[in-house]
Amino acid sequence: MIPQGLMLTVPEALAAVRDRASPLPPRRGWLTKSLGQVLAEDVIADIDLPPFDKAVVDGFAVRSVDVNGPAPVRLRVVEEIYAGQVPTRRVGPGEASAIMTGAPLPDGADAVVMVEKTQCPEPGIVLLSGPIEPGQNRLVRGRELRAGDIVMPRGVVLDAAKLGVMASVGFGTVMVRPRPIVAVVATGDELVPFHKSPGPGQIRNSNTVLLAALAEEHGAMVRPMPIAPDRPEALRDAFRKALEGDELSPGRADILLISGGVSAGKRDLVPEALEALGIGCIFHKVKVKPGKPLWFGVGPDRDGGPPALVFGLPGNPVSGLVSFLLFVRPALAILAGIEEESNLSVPLASPYHHLDDRDTYRPARLVASPDGTGLRVEPLTWAGSSDLRGVGTSDGFAIFPSGERIYQKDEQIGFLSLRPSRSPLRHSYSTWPPGEGPQRTAH
Amino acid sequence: MIPQGLMLTVPEALAAVRDRASPLPPRRGWLTKSLGQVLAEDVIADIDLPPFDKAVVDGFAVRSVDVNGPAPVRLRVVEEIYAGQVPTRRVGPGEASAIMTGAPLPDGADAVVMVEKTQCPEPGIVLLSGPIEPGQNRLVRGRELRAGDIVMPRGVVLDAAKLGVMASVGFGTVMVRPRPIVAVVATGDELVPFHKSPGPGQIRNSNTVLLAALAEEHGAMVRPMPIAPDRPEALRDAFRKALEGDELSPGRADILLISGGVSAGKRDLVPEALEALGIGCIFHKVKVKPGKPLWFGVGPDRDGGPPALVFGLPGNPVSGLVSFLLFVRPALAILAGIEEESNLSVPLASPYHHLDDRDTYRPARLVASPDGTGLRVEPLTWAGSSDLRGVGTSDGFAIFPSGERIYQKDEQIGFLSLRPSRSPLRHSYSTWPPGEGPQRTAH
């Protein structure tokens, strides 16, 4: 444990979290349920693909030598071969077989002439003309991959195209890193369920909704729990249930997110309740604004798996959000086996005067730069760290290191994105009006 | 319908699809189940937030005039106020109330002194020193928002932060655009289920996995159906079931994706089967490579909702994938009420010679530019349009318009991303080693 009273910087606290997080043991799961998960085995082809020489157009399977004579060439049709069938006749000199896309090429034939380039003057006869190359419109067996090839290496994040590739080599199930299970408990006597009307002095519990949705956005299985009141035994009981799960929400939690009860107040009983459950404190408090009261611990020890990572997040929604993005998100990535990506820096849209003794995360919006070549970051005015509403209209947080400094327009500053996607790029929903866009040729 | 035999360009075909797609009628759903959906009503605050003047630190609620005298100031503590409680005592001259973060300020008090700046020499007495501003460490009622304010405007895509905001004003349910229901049917006598071993002339059906996963990645509810054989009545029956749903997969399909059976072959029976079900052809074939045989239609007419959009996709996996990204993705966005985003163009990593009479989509990878300031697109070598494996390692498709041209290094070209995210930015999983990154100050 880090000495009590020592306030860590963000990089120090992040390093302490990362040191305690490791990838979850892989499990076998249905291929069709593995979207977004990390592959934990090399997937190897069991057959050649395609498994036979195959026609890639509808037409006539021919011996190319026959077709390269004087046009038109007249051939006798000896068979019709549909996809899913096996040819029964060899194509000899002066012969052809009608063939459909995807069907196996018959012995003797080495190319396919497209149906659009042929004529059938009478049944059983086809007229066509060359030239045709050997191999034209034929996909040779094993051209895409060969039995024994590694089709997909361990460690990749499975997207739709990768699932399609693995399906084509027959993987009904695959070894993947499981989705982390994240339990969420909001604490506080002042809280009422969010869909109820608060009485005097009460507020709605929006934190369970926020934290559960954040965890879900980041690929976790989420276990939202009832509000826990500020009493030691009630807190212990709530945390134990959250960690263990039950028949409705089975599986031990890999991460426990607790909201509230970690400040210096007389009813901030969360750290004690956690320690009573065998969850050891790694650090308490981080030199960051907002999010200073963050508590992080690990435990209890248990058989057959690593102990849970436990985050006591500030009850203030924006502080909780920043803490999640800074510390829980990287932990989730490590558990899921996802390679962490590098930080983002973005030019500032206008000068900014910063003065604070803590690194400060300020809600900000990304705006297109005037020349349209990129994005710039614009800090928002906001009502303070409980102003989740301001954050609701932002894209993330501009990062200003501790100290006093005037940041210049166009200076690169750190940006902590709200978006969970690992996508390196804008989405490309296409909006070309007809005749515009990359299609520049006349039609 | 577009005149038969006329082959549309990509922008023309896309315009024809967009003309037939409209946002799904909104429905009321649980707030906690609305992640990623589009809000279809303005959400209005029912109460002020915060609902009372509130302490933002643990400490002592005071009259600021009392504290700004000669230090130390000695005040009598008249009450302890916890979050969730209602103060019962007014703070008069020479008095203070102990107060916890989140608790309501008592009448009379106009500021809170942090507990760290106070001393308690004896029970019931607190020593503290100024100066303190009126309003310090107090969050005034309604500072975040006022009853009647629009908290969240219709049309936004609901992310975790937005759900948190709406929970804080008590929205248990919200009107949202439903997720589109997408049914998927692969056709072809040559297909076997992907987890089985293909016999002679057979191949595994990877298309249902691919298309269902693509639809899921793009936010749809997916209904994968069994393989349909190449017989008119079997196809009609399969398409009817896919459109109607059943007790295991209720709800009529908004989009039907069919794979295979749309080329010029003798067993390409899909268009006829669709027309027999009252699904009118809008266009068949697009001047694009790969993906030319695409069939698009609409129908049948039905009560209480728009007719389904039906895409007959080429059976070749890569052609099907390109067709999905070009045409199905924008349709899904429109149905879900999501604003379509503009196209992407990216500089080319190396010169490229293109020659084709169709606009060509070539699998490509995004690579960091040498100066590290951005991304460039690098077309991949691949084994032809059935090479899904090559696509499995790509990030999307480089777009080369029809014609012949040498594209120069660093020339901007169109890029069709595989990634479904609407994220404008790299994901920011944080990987600062301690002491590096945006934190530049010494620790």
Oligomer: homodimer
Sheet with the most strands: spatial strand order of chain A: 7-4-6-5-9-8
Instruction: Give the count of structural domains of chain A.
Output: 4
Share of helix of chain A, binned: 10-25%
Question: In the CATH hierarchy, what is the architecture of the largest domain in chain A at level 2?
Answer: 3-Layer(aba) Sandwich
Mean pLDDT of chain A: 88
Q: Roughly how many Å is the radius of gyration of chain A?
A: 31 Å
Structural summary, described in words:
The structure is a homodimer of 443-residue chains. By secondary structure, chain A is α+β, with helices and mostly antiparallel strands. Chain A folds into four domains: 10-25 and 178-336, Molybdenum Cofactor Biosythetic Enzyme, Chain A (3-Layer(aba) Sandwich), CATH 3.40.980; 32-49 and 144-176, Molybdopterin biosynthesis moea protein, domain 2, CATH 3.90.105.10; 54-139, Molybdopterin biosynthesis moea protein, domain 3 (Molybdopterin biosynthesis moeA protein, domain 3); 344-417, MoeA, C-terminal, domain IV (Beta-clip, Beta Barrel). Chain A contains eight helices and 28 strands. In chain A, the strands form eight sheets. A six-stranded mixed beta sheet of chain A has the order 7-4-6-5-9-8. Chain A is elongated. Chains A and B meet through helix 1, helix 3, strand 15, helix 4 and helix 7 of A and helix 1, helix 3, strand 15, helix 4 and helix 7 of B.
Task: Please describe the structure with a list of short key phrases separated by commas or semicolons.
443 residues; elongated; six-stranded mixed β-sheet; alpha+beta; 4 domains; Molybdopterin biosynthesis moeA protein, domain 3; Molybdenum Cofactor Biosythetic Enzyme, Chain A; homodimer; Molybdopterin biosynthesis moea protein, domain 2; 28% strand
